[in-house]
TrEMBL record:
Pfam families (alphabetical): PNPOx_N
Stored InterPro entries: F420H2_bilvrd_red/Heme_oxyg, Pyridox_Oxase_N, Split_barrel_FMN-bd
Protein name: Pyridoxamine 5'-phosphate oxidase family protein
Keywords: Oxidoreductase
Species of the source: Pseudonocardia nematodicida
Amino acid sequence: MTTWDEFAAAAPTIAEVFRRRHAATGNLCMLGTLRADGFPRISPVEPRFFEGELWVGGMPDTRKFDDLKRDPRCTLHTATVDTRVSEGDAKIWGTVHDVRDPALHQRFAEALYAESGFDLRGREFDWFPRVDVHGGSSIAVGDGHLDITVWRAGGTEEVVRKH
């Protein structure tokens, strides 16, 4: 398992691009999952960083969470609206794990309320998926080239330059 903080320490370039693009879109990312029939599904989500971890929250009882309960593999991609990708782009992939910890849920709810005004305080969470990061990549556009930075668990960031 690689926590968000461990990932950010091992892959600082990718983590910085991911955080920056995540913030620039109002916390919006696209979540990739596998449907029951094996086809991919893309869903918008607003993942949150909390206590050194990355959490995938959203409306309960949705298909994307059914997908993750059946097969915990996923990818998160920063929402890209610029076809030139001038501000960069990032994605991470890994697995999610449901964390059953009512005290953690309430700390998260308090922080969410303070940050956004969305009130989950006092509610019980039936599904609280934490992302265990297995890998990630980011791109940056430079003077006539594209740098692709890739990281896999246990390794270091590697950069491939395309001209």
